[in-house]
Amino acid sequence: MLPTWLTEEYLQPRLRSYYKDDQLKILRIWAKPATGKGDNYVGVIVRVYVDYQQGDGSVQNKSYIVKQALTPDVPQAKVFYEYDVYKREMDMYEFILPKMKALLQEAGLTGKLTADAITVDRENSTIILEDLAQYKYINTDRVKQMDLTHTKLTLDLLAKFHAASIVLRQRHQELVTDCFFINFFSLGKKGYTEVFTGLFRAFLRFIDGQPQLKQRYGKKLEKLNDHIMEYGNRIYQVEENELLSLIHSDCWTTNIMFQYDDSGLPKTATAIDFQFSNYTSPALDLHYFFATSLREEVLDKESELVELYYNALKQSIEKLAYKGLFPSLQEFLLQFERRRFMSLLSNLFKPVIVYNGSEQSSDLSNLYTENEEGLGFQKAIYDSEVVIRSTTRFLAILDSKGVLDLQ
Questions:
Q1: Cα–Cα distance between 64 and 67 in angstroms, integer?
Q2: Is residue 50 part of a domain?
């Protein structure tokens, strides 16, 4: 269903401006939901279909993605407003991403970074984007997760994104406003304290029901319970000798789209959804992406993947004529390892990402609240052999590296 304000009169001048065609005339407009239940918690996303006539008389049939902020009365919305989520994404599409795109093009780094914004409407807290489906971009299956080929394309995309953002901050400091230094664990913010501590309690309840995991890791995890936000804040801090870049901050299967060649192999990747982007260590994007989105056999290649990403980042930064310190591979590996705690935090989302049961929920709070509905949903998403196997694997790795010990 179309928002009441999204009329032909509203959209026509904006399409005229975007296509640079003062004679463009909308003939018909209609809409369908663009996401399924449980695929998006942050806003309302609608796919709008438009038939329009160009100034030369030709008729076009195109679709667009309309992203609108949740209204303040929606229970989970208060968290997003507290963290400037909607303003941040509007700033990304209106100011940051176009500049990053231009920097990459100037350096000869091709590929579509993200969808173009047709318009950014702050009055209606809405962004209208070109529909990447028209260019045959699609998502991989979040339940099956990414194979090695998709993973490598995503890492190459992240490397370009991070490199462009480093140079952007050097050349256009005025665009990097305060909202880009707010993260989930920022001091003085409360909303995500409830989210992450609730997610961790749900995780502890799951561990409590797994005798072997409880015996091996239960006491250590219980001790960590009071330090989740403190340690989370710590890994977002960047020292002077470390890389500081804009990160996607929500890089998982649903937010990366791929084009395929005629034989069905992925050939290019692009990113969507930048509500949480902030300046910190690019290593955090890697940990989050690895923990939420990769198949187990791909995760086994972690050191190879980090080196592949590092080489792509170095190549991109050199083509962008970056003037500044750049870490050696060994130095970057240390930066990556210092933020291993992000792997634990990211894995808190894994159960809902790989869940494919009938009990879907569009309410973020059901992931962590302890009412009847929330506890029922948490039980459903954790009741999975995949989750048990995945948890067993990542806890063993984290424990061997000392991440489960109090710091």
A1: 10
A2: yes
**Structural domain contains residue 226:** yes
What is the predicted pLDDT for the residue at 225?
95
CATH of the domain at 277: 3.90.1200
Model confidence over 30-55: pLDDT tens digits?
988 765 544 446 778 899 999 999 99
Secondary structure, 3-state, the chain = CCCCCCCHHHHHHHHHHHHCCCCCEEEEEEEEECCCCCCCCCEEEEEEEEEEECCCCCEEEEEEEEEEECCCCCCCHHHHHHCCHHHHHHHHHHHHHHHHHHHHHHCCCCCCCCCCEEEEECCCCEEEEECHHHHCCEECCCCCCECHHHHHHHHHHHHHHHHHHHHHHHHCHHHCCHHHHCCCCCCCCCHHHHHHHHHHHHHHHHHHCCHHHHHHHHHHHHHHHHHHHHHHHHHHCCCCCCCCEEECCCCCHHHEEEEECCCCCEEEEEECCCCCCEEECCHHHHHHHHHHHECHHHHCCHHHHHHHHHHHHHHHHHHCCCCCCCCCHHHHHHHHHHCCHHHHHHHCCHHHHCCCCCCCCCCHHHHCCCCHHHHHHHHHHHCCHHHHHHHHHHHHHHHHCCCCCCC
Q: What is the pLDDT of residues 153-193, one digit of tens each?
A: 999 999 999 999 999 999 999 999 999 999 999 998 988 99
What pLDDT digit, counting tens, does each position of 104-132 carry? 999 999 889 999 999 999 999 999 999 99
Same domain, yes or no, for 215 and 357? Answer: yes
Assess contact for 351 and 382: CB atoms under 8 A: yes
The count of other CB atoms within 10 Å of the CB of residue 78 is 14
Tell me if 97 is assigned to some domain: yes
Q: What is the pTM of this model?
A: 0.94
Its domain, for residue 348, covers: 71-115+136-400
- Out of 23-27, 81-85, 100-104, 258-262, which region has the weakest mean confidence (pLDDT)? 81-85
64 and 75 together in one domain: no
Pair (23, 10) in one structural domain:
yes
Contact 319, 107 (CB under 8 A): yes
